[in-house]
Predict the 3D structure of the following.
Amino acid sequence: MSRQIVSVVGGKDAASVDTYESTNPARTGDVVASVGLADADVFAAACRTAKEAQREWAKVPAPVRGRVIASIGRLVEANAESLARLVTEEIGKPYAEALGEVREIVDTCDFFLGEGRRLYGQTVPSEMPDKNLFTFRTPVGVAAVITAGNFPVAVPSWYLVPALLCGNAVVWKPAEYAAASAHAMFRLFSAAGLPDGVLNIVFADGAETFRGLDRALGEGTVQKVGFTGSSEVGRRIGELAGRHLQSACLELGGKNPMVVMPDADLDLAVEGALFSGFGTAGQRCTSLGTVIVHESVHDEFLERFARAVREAEIGDPAGDVLAGPLLDRKFAERFEEYLTWIQPHHTVVTGPVGRVTEDNPRGGFDGGDGLYYHPVVVDGVRPDDRLFLEETFGPIVGVTAFRTLDEAIELANLPGYGLSSSIYTTDAANAFRFREGVSAGMVSVNNSTSGAEAHLPFGGNGKSGNGSRQSGMWVLDQFTRWQAMNWDHSGRLQKAQMDVAEITPDLGFRL
């Protein structure tokens, strides 16, 4: 029997109005979980519950909250294999990658458990005597967090762990197609001793979530919105939060460029392009979009890259493969549309395209009833092509040529996204010129566009986000607000900028 999952608000199961079946994309006939979907009323009620619970949670000393985060990390570590297997079963991510994703939760907890003792403010000198100035970090209140399912446990931890550590309560809405993985993670967090209502999980479709969030913002029960997903939906979330004078932390899509210079190690560049282009079947926000390769090495790189893609293992995600299936039927349908963007002036250098079937196999693999697709490399993309300008969430990578580094930087920035980027070169001057010119929030040198460490800021600009950052100490600014305090112990009213001692210089003095 499949798992039966419903929303949990204030430690209690919440009502459902509909049911969604989360299926295994490698074997679409297997139901992983039957998910009870809530409506806007449940979402808004969860935010009210969180508001009540947050008051007491904020009173818990931050170092003690840090110990709860430490317990979460240990619980996840102890259950790592079980959670990773569930991720593989539910979204088709290769097991080795799923295990790495779970490890990222542990790394995030290990970093933030110490931040409970480092939520530092400052003592600031006053311009007047007998007066002290201070700054404090205070929790924002309730964070509504909405996450995608391509990283069903790692990316949510980037929000949940620091938000809870800082003294906030959270209402988390994960993707329906990754509900079982999210529910398992929620149970691990709860087992660490979080009081009821401090962390709530609500399963709902997009329309009901949006209605519920609008209501909660209007009621004043949400002070922060975190969203990971498409640029299109992120724009609507940002507009909604802005109308209620609240800020959103938006981590959106990407059209991530990889520049290959003439002096690049081509074998290393091919390895990076293969992993970032087709790992997780190209379904990462940091997946490689376009390889921008110098014309002098274009043909050699393309030949090596195409061969590597043709030889890569695509198949059962429980095995040793580069990629498994697409996440869900809706992503498969969308990818079918992206394939129609291939034009006569393009050259597909990797062989068959489309779904892997008995009539369209990949070697000896016919895909069964899984959502497997042939990885595609398209040469000859132009700056005005949709394949060049728009995010293509799935296993397709474009290739184009350039002559000068300035031209490469211009091409890298042209689509208007700004999440991740990379350059392959042995010349430090090239690396730093690229860093200065590229609009991406993250730059890799001789590494792929994918792969973030838990203690560095993660986030993008332009269509990739609103400049907010996750991970590391920088995310603390998303989940705390600065409070200033002045304490005058002079026994009299001292007015700033007015009752200030003057020391008069002799500005006419000359040697």
Observations:
- The longest strand covers residues 27-37.
- The chain is about 35% helix and 20% strand.
- The CA atoms of residues 255 and 262 lie 23 Å apart.
- The mean pLDDT is 96.
